[in-house]
């Protein structure tokens, strides 16, 4: 546990008599410098997260409707039913609104449930209202400035009504760059004789997994999916775009059996775009849409582009989740491969808790939400003096499905764990019941309970894994080989989209939140029994028989999953 985390938790200390400090931090995070005070009359748009009425009831409901065998399995909630769980109590709403009114301020709700309010006020009003010191901070890396405060309070009588306020102590996080250059196509000795394997030498020797090879490896059908209106949503954030022409080239090269004009739809929010100018394509949206379309052959894919109106990537993700919850028919499968954030680097745990509760709402709506772990193994490359393992968010949220990485070395007969596969234990979220037996079984079998390096009671990741090395098209040219857990999540989500599509086409409910199903059907996955994910100057975790914090239950077998789904 890094000491800095402790400082980020709200301290139960009053700043001024009658006020309650909601959140504080000692200093700006590394990479930001305070350069002065903003104009007193500059207007800030502050978001207030109000205490949701019955979040525990929502969580319990999600587990009930997502657990096969439960009498309520598949009875997903309407948006109105979700709203009933998360709407703040009338006392909460009236006390917050009268506090604002007594300060001549009015709030407008951001969500139908009114659990999020937006209030515009000047810097001087905000400083007085929240006992804050809003200042201008500059990013050393980009020179961009943001207005933040290191501490803020609300009247003590409102401390159980307001959970947090944004933007305050949470600083934007830089998007990490691409995987390091060490993730290059392994060189194959010309004379290498591949060992016997169920997978063709063409695919194994190539190390880059094209759609045709993934079909072979996981038994993914190549035939067109039955037409339904259910969408497969692929997320893009921060001006990361998906290019239509690159998709066409991709299909021409890698799916010659498909119509190269197959395309994707577009949903935008927060000023999101899908810029098609040369050089406008993104390093996430582009490969993700190419594989989503190329692996699902006929499932309607839609690109969900969230813009940069909130000056924080995590708030963009929160907006995306709140937006999708509010749709009458949200896409049933959603892929989000945006760069994960290490839990210890989150500016405020509140933002992760709010986001995870938004993912719980999507789970309640029957959405399968799929994310990657990270490419830093059990540790965390970005923290040089790392002393403990650091799991990454949003993978650690118990209501999403987290995908780790595997690889296929040409000198081995089977798929194995990738040493880059992010895995480990959360410090923020408790271990959910659905994984209790799998995770405690792992801990017991490996006798690995070194709680100084990781939190044995935390939510463990990943849940599953898939191949991480693919080729795709960028700006018209082939990106020959890249390996990242992002691609593992894309491949897994494509399989889920196909399975969801089959269920919908058969008039059945979709699979919804997947984890209870996954943890009760571990044998529908190809178990990785060897390999490890070194990190934080340690050997990391070992991959073992059954679930492990390197590859979860392993990689998907389409035929076995299809069989499981047909019996639900
Ligand atoms: C919260 O939701 C649960 C599950 O639906 C329900 O049993 C409980 O009565 C609710 N609690 C309140 C205070 O509404
Ligand atoms: C609110 O507005 C009224 C009328 O303009 C003014 O008298 C009062 O001082 C204001 N109160 C605050 C807290 O700004
Ligand atoms: C707050 O300001 C934003 C940006 O100027 C504006 O779009 C919004 O309508 C305002 N909201 C309220 C409640 O005044
Ligand atoms: C930031 O500003 C400094 C000083 O003006 C300049 O030297 C530097 O190039 C700028 N960095 C970026 C990323 O714009
Ligand atoms: C091997 O990789 C290359 C480059 O990505 C690709 O063009 C080729 O189709 C791949 N071969 C197979 C069998 O997938
Ligand atoms: C793809 O679109 C182009 C241009 O509209 C058209 O000429 C071509 O026939 C289409 N191809 C297929 C296979 O539908
Ligand atoms: C371990 O996880 C639990 C539950 O998530 C949490 O309450 C506790 O603070 C964590 N411990 C440490 C040392 O982070
Ligand atoms: C991982 O496996 C290696 C080799 O089998 C063994 O030496 C090591 O103790 C194992 N590590 C853990 C944490 O179980």
TrEMBL record:
GO terms for cellular component: extracellular region. Keywords: Calcium, Hydrolase, Metal-binding, Protease, Serine protease, Signal, Zymogen. Its main location: secreted. It is found in: Secreted, Extracellular space. One of its GO terms (molecular function) is metal ion binding. Residues 208-568 form the Peptidase S53 domain. Residues 1-18 form the signal peptide. The keyword Repressor does not apply. It holds the Pfam family Pro-kuma_activ. Residues 175-201 have a biased composition (Low complexity). InterPro entries: Peptidase_S8/S53_dom_sf, S53_propep, Sedolisin_dom, Tripeptidyl-peptidase_I. One of its GO terms (biological process) is proteolysis. Residues 173-202 are annotated as: Disordered. Its cofactor is Ca(2+). This is Family S53 protease. It comes from Mycena alexandri.
């Amino acid at each position: 546990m890094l000491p800095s985390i402790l400082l980020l938790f709200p301290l139960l200390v009053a700043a001024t008599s009658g006020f309650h400090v909601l959140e504080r931090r000692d200093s700006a995070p590394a990479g930001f410098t305070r350069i002065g005070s903003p104009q007193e009359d500059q207007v800030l748009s502050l978001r207030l997260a109000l205490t949701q009425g019955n979040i525990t009831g929502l969580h319990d409901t999600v587990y009930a409707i997502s657990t096969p065998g439960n009498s309520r399995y598949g009875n997903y909630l309407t948006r109105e039913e979700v709203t009933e769980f998360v709407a703040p109590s009338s006392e909460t709403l009236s006390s917050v609104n009268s506090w604002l009114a007594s300060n001549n301020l009015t709030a407008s709700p951001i969500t139908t449930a009114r659990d999020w309010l937006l209030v515009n006020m000047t810097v001087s009003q905000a400083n007085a209202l929240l006992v804050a010191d809003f200042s201008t901070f500059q990013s050393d890396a980009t020179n961009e400035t943001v207005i933040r405060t290191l501490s803020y309070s609300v009247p003590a009588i409102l401390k159980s009504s307001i959970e947090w306020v944004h933007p305050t102590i949470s600083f934007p996080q830089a998007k990490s760059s691409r995987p390091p250059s060490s993730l290059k196509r392994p060189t194959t000795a010309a004379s290498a004789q591949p060992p016997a394997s169920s997978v063709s030498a063409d695919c194994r020797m190539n190390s880059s997994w094209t759609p045709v090879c993934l079909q072979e490896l996981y038994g993914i059908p190549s035939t067109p999916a039955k037409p339904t209106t259910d969408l497969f949503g692929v997320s893009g954030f921060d001006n990361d775009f998906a290019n239509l022409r690159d998709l066409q080239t991709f299909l021409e090269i890698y799916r010659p059996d498909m119509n190269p004009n197959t395309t994707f739809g577009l949903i935008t929010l927060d000023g999101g775009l899908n810029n098609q100018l040369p050089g406008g394509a993104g390093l996430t949206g582009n490969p993700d849409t190419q594989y989503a379309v190329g692996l699902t052959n006929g499932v309607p894919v839609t690109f969900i582009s969230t813009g940069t109106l909130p000056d924080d990537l995590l708030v963009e993700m929160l907006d995306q989740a709140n937006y999708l919850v509010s749709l009458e028919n949200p896409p049933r499968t959603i892929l989000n491969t945006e760069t994960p954030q290490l839990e210890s680097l989150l500016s405020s745990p509140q933002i992760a808790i709010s986001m995870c509760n938004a993912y719980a709402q999507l789970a309640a709506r029957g959405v399968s939400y799929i994310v990657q772990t990270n490419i830093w193994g059990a540790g965390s490359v970005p923290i040089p003096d790392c002393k403990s393992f650091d799991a990454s968010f949003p993978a650690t949220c118990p209501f999403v499905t987290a995908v780790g990485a595997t690889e296929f070395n040409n000198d081995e007969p089977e798929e194995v764990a990738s040493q880059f596969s992010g895995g480990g234990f959360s410090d923020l979220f408790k271990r959910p019941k659905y994984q209790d037996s799998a995770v405690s079984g792992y801990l017991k079998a490996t006798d690995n309970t070194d709680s100084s390096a990781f939190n044995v009671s935390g939510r463990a990741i990943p849940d599953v894994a898939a191949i991480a090395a693919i080729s795709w098209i960028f700006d018209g040219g082939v990106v020959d080989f890249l390996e990242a857990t992002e691609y593992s999540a894309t491949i897994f989500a494509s399989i889920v989209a196909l399975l969801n599509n089959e269920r919908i086409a058969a008039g059945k409910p979709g699979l919804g939140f997947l984890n209870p199903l996954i943890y009760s059907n571990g044998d529908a996955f190809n178990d990785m029994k060897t390999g490890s994910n070194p990190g934080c100057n340690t050997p990391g975790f070992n991959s073992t028989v059954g679930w492990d914090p390197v590859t979860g239950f392993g990689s998907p077998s389409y035929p076995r999953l299809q069989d499981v789904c047909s019996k639900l």
